[in-house]
Amino acid sequence: MAGKLKIRVDQDKCQGHARCKSLAPELFDLDEFGNAHEVGDGSVPAGLEDKAYLAQSNCPEIAIEVTEE
Amino acid sequence: MSDSASIMPEHPPVTDWVNDFDHTDPTWTENPFPIWEKLRAASPVVHTERFLGCYMPTTYQAVKEISYDTDHFSSRRVIVRDVRPEITARAPPITSDPPEHKPAKQLLLPPFTPDAMKKLEPRVRAICNELIDEFIADGKCDAAARYTKHVPVRAIAHMLGIPEKDGDLFIKWIHGILELGIKDDNALMQAVREMTGYFAGHIEQRRTNPTDDLISTLMAAKGADGQPLGDEHILGSLRLLLIAGIDTTWSAIGSSLWHLAKTPADRERLVAEPELMPLAVEELLRAYSPVTMAREVMKETTISGCPVKPGNMVLLSFPAANRDPAMFPDADKVVIDRKENRHAAFGLGIHRCVGSNLARMEMTVAIEEWLKRIPDFRLDPAGRVTWSEGTVRGPRQLPVLFGKAK
C-alpha cells in the first residue's frame, strides 16, 4: 500500500494554464491572476490520487510535484 | 488587393523545405503536417533566407527552450514578415519582454480567469444558438462564414463593451494585420490606424461616461509606477485583445468542426459521452493548434545544439511542437480522450495566452451547442474547404451538409 500523496505547485513555474484546476478542482485553486496553488496543505484525500497524477501529467509547465509521504 | 506600392513580390514556390521553408507557401497552408515531419527529421532547428532570415524550431523541446529564453529571444516582433520596419505600434504584454512584461500582463489576467469566463458563458451559449437559428433550416451551411467566425467576434465585443454588430470591421482589420500584412506593409499600417482610431473614440466616450466593461477596466487600471496607463498602452492592449481574441478561436472552433465533420466516430462518441468534452477540447487544441508566434534573436546562442544568430527572426510554431512524436505518442492521430496532454497551443512560459480560458470556454460551448442541434453533419462534397495563410491556421470556408449521409 502506497503512502499518502502530497501535491505542490511551483509558483515560479506556474503560468496559469489552469489545466490542474479543470482536471482536479478538489486539489487546486487559482488566485486572482489565474495562477494555481494547492488546496490546503496539499494533502491528497484518499480516492483522489488518480486526479493528482492526471493534473500533474497535463501541466504544460511541469509545475506540479506529487510526492509520497 | 495588389494596388499597394509596398507589396512584396510573390514568393517563389518552395522546392527545398529544409533549407528554404516558407509558412506562406500554398502547400504549407493546405497541409503543413508532412512538411513539419520532414523538417523535424532534418534538424531540431531549420533556417530559411526568406523573411530576411528566419529560424524554425521543429521539436517540442526546441520550441520550449526558445519560449523560456527571454534573454536571447525578444517578443518585440511577434509576426514573421517580409519586412522588418521600425517598431511603432506595440501591443503589451504580447510584444513586451521582461521586466515590462509582468506588470502589463497582470493588468489583463483578472478579467480572463476561469471564474470570469463562467459569467460570460450564458451569453456565448445564446450567441451560438442565435447563429444556428439563422441557417439550421437550410440543411447546410458554410460553418466558417456563418458560425465559427462570429462566436469569438461577438464574445470579445461583449467583453470589451463595443457593439457586436461592428464585427465585420474587426474581421477586416485582422485580415489586414495577420494575413495581408505579412507581405504588404501598407495593408498592415492601415488596419492598425483604423483600429486605433476606432478604440480612441470608445476611450473618449468613456472619459465622460465610464462603463462596466474591459475598456473602462483598463482606463481605471494603474501601471507598475502607480500612475494610470497612458492611452498608448491602453490602445495597444485593446488592439492585442481584438487581434488575438478573434481569428485564433475562430480557427480553433473551425478546425474542430472540420475534424468532427469528417470523423463520425469521434462525433458520435462526443454526442454519447458529453463528459469527454474537456479532454476532447484539449486534444483538438493540440492536433489543430491555430497559433504560430515569433521571436527575434537578440544574442547568439544555441538551441537543441543548433547555433542561432542575431538578425534573424524565429517562427515559433506551437502547432509543430504539438505534433512532435517524441512528446506525444501517435502525435498525428486525434485521440479524443487523450489522458496525458501537455500541449503548447497557448504557448509556454511567461507569454502563455492571456485569453486561454476564454478560448477554451468558447470552443467548448460552440462545439456543445452545435452538436446538440446538429449531431450529424459532413463535409459538402460539392464545396471546398480553404485554410487561412500564415500566422493563424484554421478553415476560412467550411461547407457542411447536415444529417447522415444517404
What is this structure's SSE topology?
The complex is a heterodimer of chains A (69) and B (406).
Chain A: E1 5-9, H1 19-23, E2 28-30, E3 36-38, H2 49-56, E4 64-68
Antiparallel strand pairs in A: 1-4, 2-3
Chain B: H1 26-30, H2 33-42, E1 45-48, E2 54-57, H3 60-68, E3 73-74, H4 101-108, H5 114-135, E4 140-142, H6 143-148, H7 150-160, H8 167-179, H9 185-208, H10 214-220, H11 231-262, H12 264-272, H13 277-287, E5 292-297, E6 301-303, E7 306-308, E8 313-317, H14 318-321, H15 356-373, E9 377-379, E10 386-387, E11 395-397, E12 399-402
Parallel strand pairs in B: 2-8
Antiparallel strand pairs in B: 1-2, 3-5, 4-12, 5-8, 6-7, 9-12, 10-11
3D structure, described in words:
With 69 residues, chain A is α+β, with helices and mostly antiparallel strands. Chain A is built from 2 helices and 4 strands, in the order βαββαβ. Chain A has a two-stranded antiparallel ribbon. Chain A has a two-stranded antiparallel sheet with strand order 2-3. In chain A, a hairpin with a 5-residue loop joins strand 2 and strand 3. Chain A is globular. The two termini of chain A are 12 Å apart. With 406 residues, chain B is an alpha+beta fold. Chain B has one domain: Cytochrome P450 (Cytochrome p450, Orthogonal Bundle). In chain B, 47% of the residues lie in helices and 10% in strands. Chain B is built from 15 helices and 12 strands. In chain B, the strands form 4 sheets. Chain B has a 5-stranded mixed β-sheet. Chain A binds chain B through residues 15-19, 21-23, 30, 32-34, 54, 57-62, and chain B through 106, 109-110, 112-115, 278, 282, 339-344, 346, 348-350, 352, 356-357.
